[in-house]
Amino acid sequence: MTNAPQDYPDARGGCQCGAIRFFIAAGPAKAGLCHCRMCQRATGNAFAPLLEVPAARVSWEGVAPSEWASSNISQRGFCPTCGTPLYLRTDDTFEFMAGCLSPDVPFLPQDQGGMEARKSWLDALPSLPAHTTRPELLAVVVSHQSKED
Question: What is the mean pLDDT of residues 53-79?
Answer without folding.
Answer: 97
